[in-house]
Amino acid sequence: MGFLSYAGRRAVHTAVTLVLLLVFMFVLFRLIPGDPTTLLLGTGELTPEAQQRLRAQWGLDQSMLEQFITYGRNLLSGELGLSFYYRRPVTEVIAPMLVNTLMLMLPVVVLAIGLGIAIGTWLGWRRGERVEELGAVLVLVPRALPVFWTGIVFLSLFAYKLQWFPIGGIRETFFYPESWYQFIPYYDVLRHLVLPVATGVLASMADPLMIMRTSLIEVRDEEFMVLARARGLSTRSLQRLARRSAFLPVLTYSAIMVGFAFGGQVLLEVVFTWPGMGRLMVNSVTQRDYPVAQAAFFLMAAVVIVLNFAVDLVYGWLDPRIRYE
Amino acid sequence: MSDASSALPHAPAFDGRIRARTRSIVDFLKIAFESWSGAFGISILALIVVVAAFSPWITPYDPIANHFNAAGQLKRLEPPSAAHWLGTTYYGLDVLSQLIDGSRIVLIVGITCASFIAIIGTNVGLIAGYCGGRVDAVLMRITGLAFGIPFIPFAVVLVALLGPSLWNMILTISLLMWRTTARVIRSQVLSLRERAFVKAAKIAGASDVRIIYVHIFPNVLPMTLLYVAFDIAWAVLAEASISFLGFGDPNQVSWGQMLYLAYVSGSIRQAWWWTIPPGLGLSLFVISVFLVGRQYEKLASPRLR
User: Fold this and answer.
1) How far apart are CA B139 and CA A27, in angstroms?
2) Which domain holds residue B151?
3) From A84-93, B146-155, B240-249, the region with the lowest mean pLDDT
4) Count of domains observed in chain B
5) Is residue A54 one of the residues assigned to a domain?
6) Contact residues, A window 11-30, toward B, CB-based 8 Å cutoff
């Protein structure tokens, strides 16, 4: 099967999944008692005529199918409506939060995968040694810690007790550099990033690490590795060779990981009062600001689905065998 | 939180190996004790089960009773003492009693969610894998959607819509987490259905339903159990996360809710006796499940041994 037909089939799958997501959300957010007219202005504040007019304006008097099509078109084109709480377009509310979320998430994902590959290679290479046996058990520990609890422990230790880092937020309201190193660009934001990033990396490092280890153990005994060893390559080169071949499963996993990072991000942002999308979403659900909650939810799910597609493409490109499955 | 799937290769020989080793329940349990880490895990799990089972009798105080000192003031954030081994909360509650009471939620959530996940995931996997074609395509798209939905945001929205209660949380967790089991079981079934015994059953005139549940299902059961074991851990973490965000059942003491209250009351600054125990309990539970599961996972793929 050629790469293009593989890509085409994957694209169809992705499109179907996205439509399913829209259907799912359409149903989910209509489970809210009452329609948006009663929700927006509270009961009794609107005359029946005004309510009727609004319903017509929002298309709530149309058939379910027509409503769904409008709904899907609006979401996909970024017409996300007005926030009940902030009284501003949802896009305006979400955009800065999205930037903040990415600022926290990118270093977490990059560091977690990087460290995971490094430690995973190291452990896999020492297969059968005592240190590996112990290491395989130890890596389960950070995986088992609830991320919000790690955050709380870090906060009480490093922020409250030792006062090395701020207790939360993204920057000080007023920040005046006092020593030379505080003039480093974005010093204030970087200082706020340390604890949440460390917590996030600790939580999400274990999975790429274990996959890398398993994959490396499998690659280590392949014929091309035996040949390379016979040719007398240095341990360093051998490791590099093995790492390159063992990397594919980690790559597939990285898409799933970004998805989990979005989910785990919510907890991270809440613990460290980081003004990102996850925290916005929790707050908007509490404030019954459903347009914002809905948009944030859609954005997170869509990113995961599209990323999965991207990874499928890269994978199919790198490993032609996968196209025939 | 994540699914355990990725680290697990699928071994068709798993079933045979498990069966050869397990002529009785005792044999099956012995596997867990084959390494110090497995023995540690199973001891911790046993301890939590015992504590949860006897919790009404061993809590030193009523877990939701406020305590007052001799002067009639609320005992706010008192460090551990002879009267309160793990101190008191901001609201004057006994931390140890809350900790013991909260262990029940761990078991309830773990066992119920894992059962629901097993039922949904195994059935989806069996039907998709066996029927193939259009049925498979539809079921796998739905599974793909379940993989695309970020768990915590989904849980937050759903619990907010349905109202915060233990059962709504269990429902929410089960509604999404069956995805891993479904995928794994499907891939197992894909290879099983080509085996001779399935063809023989078909020729003998067995119905599809009979083939799926009588002939194929017993062969994927060990794999289902292994995944369910890991799902217990993820479900417990999920419940704790939802509770920590404040969407938990307000009428039940749970470890996640203890951490939520410690956090929102601003007590994490000093009250380590309030924040450490529930977090440690959660971590120990989850890691014990991993350690025990790992012992059985080794049977599934000897290369990992």
Assistant:
1) 19
2) 36-68+85-304
3) A84-93
4) 2
5) no
6) 13, 16-17, 20-21, 24, 28-29
Check whether residue B8 and residue B60 sit in a common domain: no
Residues B106 and B217 in one domain: yes
CA distance A28 to chain B (A): 8
Query: Is B79 inside any structural domain?
Result: no
Q: How many domains does chain A have?
A: 1
Q: What is the pLDDT of residue B10?
A: 39
pLDDT at position B177 over 80: yes
Q: Decide if B76 is inside a domain.
A: no
B121 shares its domain with B148: yes
- Residue B75 in domain: no
**Token couple for A10:** 């994957």
Q: In whole numbers, what is the pLDDT of chain B averaged over residues?
A: 83
The rounded distance, in Å, linking the Cα atoms of B235 and B238 is 5
CB contact under 8 A, B157 and A28: yes
**CA distance, residue A181 to nearest chain B CA (Å):** 28
ipTM computed for the complex: 0.84
Are the Cβ atoms of A17 and B1 closer than 8 angstroms?
no
What confidence score (pLDDT) does residue B281 get?
93
Taking a contact as any Cβ pair under 8 Å apart, which residues of chain A between 78 and 97 contact chain B? none
Closest-CA residue in chain A for B163?
A32
In a domain, B80, yes or no: no
- Residues B222-240, mean pLDDT to the nearest whole number: 88
Q: Which domain holds residue A179?
A: 96-318
Model-level pTM? 0.84
Q: Do B26 and B90 share a domain, yes or no?
A: no
Residue B187 has pLDDT above 70, yes or no: yes
A203's CB contacts (< 8 A; 6+ apart) are A142, A143, A145, A147, A150, A264
Contact: B37, A259; criterion CB under 8 Å: no
